[in-house]
Design brief:
By secondary structure, the chain is α/β, with parallel strands linked by helices. Helix content is about 35%, strand content about 15%. The protein has a domain of about 170 residues: Alpha-Beta Barrel (TIM Barrel), CATH 3.20.20. Strands 1-2-3-4-5-6-7-8 form an eight-stranded parallel β-barrel, surrounded by seven helices. The radius of gyration is 18 Å and the shape is globular. About 45% of the residues are buried.
Length: about 270
């Protein structure tokens, strides 16, 4: 990143994700507190945790509460997926990030894909469809985009995070396919400011990441001897869910309950 280049305020674009199935209630609370502290766009959690997150993010809060549905593979009957979406909505979700029926897509059964998504969009919440762009061949991707938009989906989300990192060219491709009919959320392997900038410039208007806090560290402290384009470190903080040693704080601090300070790495 050029030193004279102005860095954007990424916080309002970030969906702060906590989707690690091995994390519990306190991690959800911390994730919500971090999102409010930094002014992130949203918090993205499993449907299991929507009720807990809603308690931490009062209705009307500027931070959107997002529940994944059918995550991560979408390989559940449509009725079960619909029931999960209904439960998330009843618990207070503001938005739904939905994994479509990739099996039906592989069979060329666009009607089943459409019905699967339409049953969820009719609940009235904004829906993002997780397209797994890194795994789909162009014809399947094009079909999924068209079917999703026909079903009422408002966002195309690049991936679930189970795969390679999202690239600017993938975001640009989704933007082209959407043709202004849906927005694009980039998700998966977003670790550094240069990468985040490139994704936004390619057309992403949301960034899904468990490394939002680390991105904010890099954005706000570029003069601490680290190239701001490198973003989060160390990588193992994301996979383990542990904060780097220098960022840990003593148990019982009450100034912002549940928030590990600005030095804590991302969750999930």
């Amino acid at each position: 990143m050029a030193r004279g280049r102005e860095l954007p305020d990424l916080a309002p674009l970030i969906d702060h994700a906590l989707l690690d199935p091995h994390r519990g209630r306190q991690a959800v609370i911390t994730c919500c507190d971090e999102a409010r502290h930094f002014g992130f766009a949203g918090v993205c959690v499993a449907s299991r945790w929507v009720g807990v997150a809603r308690e931490r993010l009062p209705s009307g809060d500027r931070v959107r509460l997002i529940s994944v549905v059918g995550f991560p593979f979408g390989a559940v009957p449509a009725a079960i997926k619909r029931a999960e979406a209904e439960a998330a909505a009843a618990a207070g979700a503001d938005e739904l990030d939905v994994v479509p029926d990739f099996g039906a897509l592989a069979d060329g059964d666009s009607g089943a894909v459409l019905d699967d998504l339409a049953a969820i969009t009719e609940l009235g919440l904004p829906v993002k469809v997780i397209v797994e762009i890194g795994r789909l061949q162009p014809p399947a991707l094009e079909l999924l985009v068209e079917v999703s938009i026909d079903a009422g989906v408002r966002w195309l989300k690049s991936g679930s995070g189970f795969g390679p990192a999202v690239t600017p060219s993938q975001v640009e491709r989704l933007r082209q396919l959407a043709r202004g009919r849906a927005a694009v959320k980039a998700s998966g392997g977003i670790n550094g400011l240069e990468q985040a900038m490139a994704l936004v410039e390619a057309g992403a208007t949301r960034l899904g990441s468990s490394r939002g806090v680390a991105l904010m560290q890099a954005l706000r402290r570029p003069a601490a001897g680290r190239d701001p384009s490198r973003g989060a470190e160390p990588d193992e903080a994301e996979s383990s869910g542990e904060a780097p040693a220098e960022g840990r704080r003593q148990e019982g601090r009450q100034d912002l309950p549940g928030l590990a300070d600005d030095r804590r790495a991302g969750l999930g």
